Amino acid sequence: MSSKHPEKGSSLTMDIVEFFQLSSGKWFSQRSSHDLTLKQSESGKSDFQVELLPKTDPVVIKLCEQHKLDPTVALCGVRVSGDGSTAWDKEKHPGSSVLVPIADSSKPNEGKLLHALNNAETSVVGRYVVGNDDAVTLIIENETLYAEERLWFASENLRLRTSLSKQANGFSMAAFYTEIRKGVTAPPAETKA
Q1: Of 8, 50, 60, 117, which cross-links 77 as Cys (Cβ 3.0–4.6 Å)?
Q2: What is the domain partition of the chain in residue ranges?
Q3: H or E segment at 81?
Q4: How many Å apart are CA 177 and CA 172, to the nearest integer?
Q5: What is the topology classification, in CATH, of domain 16-86+94-183?
Q6: Could you read off the pLDDT of 48-106 as tens digits, one per residue?
């Protein structure tokens, strides 16, 4: 475990690559979500895996090139894959995404976040911020959507997450996730230049 892992009394702040390294592994997630427009709630669960990718991975390079960015500026790549279900729909729904953080040269704990869904068929550019409390905030914003997620570790194998999404048509959704690690995957040997 990184010496920069959030603990009481720790004054060190991790960077985005260390956060993703700490997130590597197999997870079980329980979700409580609330449709703020219709004032309805639902619960769900999922199994997912977080895999750290080196910045030389072809998926990372392809995603950078799609957005006309030099792949050497990528800090790493992260593949998240899994399946989830809701209380009313027990069928599992598989999906995957790839995240590529690119640091802001003037603010080392902030930067762009390239986000591709389902093998880079659809991708967007968002941003990330690593706070002094070691919580990571991921934001995607465009003319039709504002989505924000905040993730932090309560302990080494317990991660918490909140999300809020608002669409231009007025639909709003908020959710809280409790994520428990089921197994650890060793990060690749080289993630930084």
Answers
A1: 60
A2: 16-86+94-183
A3: strand 77-86
A4: 17
A5: Lipocalin (2.40.128)
A6: 999 999 999 999 999 999 999 999 999 999 999 998 666 555 666 678 899 999 999 89
